[in-house]
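Exercise: predict the fold of this chain.
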Amino acid sequence: MNYSKQRELVLKTLQENMIHPTADQVYELMRKEMPKISLATVYRNLNQLAEKGIIHRISGLNGSVHFDHNIEKHYHFICTKCNKVYDVPYRVAPDLAQKLAEYTGLEAESYDVAFRGICNHCKNLN
């Protein structure tokens, strides 16, 4: 993958904003530093980075595609009140694919797990 200032800024934006942003959110964040960047450029670079395995594309969080710079194995927790997405360590359930194979005979090539509930911040607001 060739060097691109825009691609570098996309990656930097994801690393500095651990909110699992959508492409539109990345675009808005990037415009502060690169006002003339187009939304199409942001989408193209996000998709290229995801295809190369440099970032992770997350589907199904709230009907939108989100992006995550953390490519280590992990799960997600989505707050049903504030919609914030939290990383959940892989060690919480490290053998899901193995258990799937044991119980069903099915072999998972990949999987995305998202827990849903109320985050600590929202619980403390009540």
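Check your answer against the key: The chain has a mean pLDDT of 90.
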